[in-house]
Amino acid sequence: MKSVVSYPERGEGGNNKYRGNCSPRLLEDLFGFYRPKKVFDPMCGSGTTHDVCLKLGIDHDVLDLNPQYGGWDALRDEIPGVYDMIFWHPPYADIIKYSGYMWGRPDQRDLSQIPLSKYPEFIKRINFIQKKLFTSLSRGGRIAILVGDIKKNGRLYSMQRDMAWIGTPEQVVIKAQHNCWSDQVNYSGKFIPIVHEYLLIFRKDDCIVLPCTVSVQTEINWKKEERLSWRTAVRLALEGLGGKADLHKLYKELESFAATKKHSDPQAKVRQVLQTKPEFYSIDRGVWGLKQVA
Q1: What is the rounded CA–CA span in Å between residue 47 and residue 292?
Q2: pLDDT of the residue at 24
Q3: Among 82, 88, 101, 113, which residue has the fewest nearby CB atoms (within 10 Å)?
Q4: What value, to the nearest 5°, has the Cα angle with vertex 131 and ends 126 and 136?
């Protein structure tokens, strides 16, 4: 894989009639280079990631707001597992609408229903989902986000510039676009058609504190996130304790998480999470461990 990629021939996987879907060959190259053990795609579209993972024999979960893929809401629903690679190809605001056009009825939870006139709100939701996805990455895991620039009424909306860069930036890959609907349009004036996208690759080097670049360097501290789920809080706390700990240490660590302060019986909630979620396992009486992605 190189920093500029081009796939004139789309390859096999997904549905080439599903607007906005990417080439399976990009995913084959991405997964072939990083060799992930478990992949997650939160907006799988026509199922390209699923098809590529089946072809390569990679364990994976794929979801989408489309009921065909679970009706999963990236803003509100819990992420189902822990991964060392996430591939995310979000909509580019309302440039291509999905609910009501590619499937089902218009759904206000759908990012592609947000008009460019509300672009700051779109970016706000993109950043929230990106933070949420990072909580499901194992230490050393990566998220690859495929985004493009948008042009409308003489203005450039650059998603890769405006969205937060969360985690350790590792690579920007320029992907040439082929066979786009816009290729058939004759533009007037000083309009340069966009024929590329960006694949942004970020690495998770720490379980609690992540570098985050907006317009200046800043940090995200999961301990201050009030909307963090109990499952995620327990996993991050256990990861911060080296991957295993007795309940006393785990209770103590979770006391510093804002998301756990309002529960009437936090210790009982911790035990419930440990006993019911598959990423945790009992090492000894009162001692719990965090399973590694396998």
Answers
A1: 26
A2: 96
A3: 101
A4: 125
**CB under 8 Å to 189, separation ≥6 — which residues?**
none
Picking from 174, 196, 221, the residue at the C-terminal end of a domain is 221
* Residue 231 and residue 192 share a domain: no
Question: What's the total number of domains in the chain?
Answer: 2
Q: What is the predicted pLDDT for the residue at 203?
A: 97
Of 80, 89, 170, 159, which Cα lies nearest the Cα of 123? 159
pLDDT score for 294: 64
Give the range of the structural domain holding residue 22, as residue numbers without chain letter: 4-221
The pLDDT value given to residue 216: 75
CA distance 136 to 18: 28
Q: Element (H or E) spanning 123, and its range? A: helix 119-135
pLDDT lower than 50: segments of the chain: none
Q: Which pTM does this prediction carry?
A: 0.90
- In this structure, are 154 and 238 located in the same domain? no
Kindly report the CATH number assigned to the domain that includes residue 46: 3.40.50.150
pLDDT at position 268: 97
Same domain, 112 and 230: no
